[in-house]
């Protein structure tokens, strides 16, 4: 036999041994043939999608509903004060209309820095009427707003989860007004 043929045969044997080892390893990781079905809480598709957990601070009853044009509705589900000095507002956009609606570009506000980063909820503000202060959406070091971005259209009946982060008002302030361009304003209670 030639040296080339022997080297090829050895490489083939090594490849076969590695493949067999991987197959055995994968079979061993497969759960041992146990045909138990996953718990219903582990399967989001079985329930029609994932539901927010209590840990996420979401509630069934919205804190506020802000109405916009063309059947758009912003439901605020939580406003949580964090120890880091900011407030995170969570909610969902809903299209109550009968047709698809375009998310208004005005929601991003008119600040030059935010306009560079596309569509967002960068125009949102929290108003503390007690302290006579307005809090604007926070931005990262590149000037991007700390909100949901990339909003374009929403189909009839569809909901889209959204969030916004603001500097935290003083600890004694719990009721603030959330304002969003082209939408009605609403009063929300900050928890935490």
Automatic annotation (TrEMBL):
<feature type="region of interest" description="Disordered">
    <location>
        <begin position="32"/>
        <end position="59"/>
    </location>
</feature>
<feature type="compositionally biased region" description="Low complexity">
    <location>
        <begin position="40"/>
        <end position="54"/>
    </location>
</feature>
<protein>
    <recommendedName>
        <fullName>Secreted protein</fullName>
    </recommendedName>
</protein>
<feature type="signal peptide">
    <location>
        <begin position="1"/>
        <end position="29"/>
    </location>
</feature>
<keyword id="KW-0732">Signal</keyword>
């Amino acid at each position: 036999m030639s040296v080339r043929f022997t080297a090829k045969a050895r490489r083939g044997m090594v490849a076969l041994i590695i493949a067999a080892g991987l197959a055995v390893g994968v079979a061993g990781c497969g759960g041992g043939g146990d045909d138990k079905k996953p718990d219903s809480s582990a399967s989001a598709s079985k329930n029609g999608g994932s539901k927010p957990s209590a840990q996420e601070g979401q509630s069934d009853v919205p804190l506020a509903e802000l109405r916009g044009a063309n059947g758009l509705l912003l439901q605020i589900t939580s406003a949580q004060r964090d120890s880091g000095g900011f407030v995170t507002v969570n909610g969902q956009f809903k299209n109550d209309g009968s047709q698809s609606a375009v998310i208004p570009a005005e929601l991003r506000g008119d600040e030059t820095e935010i306009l560079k980063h596309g569509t967002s909820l960068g125009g949102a503000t929290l108003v503390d009427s007690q302290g006579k202060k307005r809090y604007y959406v926070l931005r990262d070091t590149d000037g991007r707003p700390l909100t949901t971005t990339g909003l374009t259209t929403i189909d009839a009946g569809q909901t889209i989860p959204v969030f916004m982060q603001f500097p935290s008002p003083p600890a004694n302030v719990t009721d603030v007004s959330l304002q969003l361009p082209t939408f009605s304003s609403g009063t929300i209670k900050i928890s935490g």
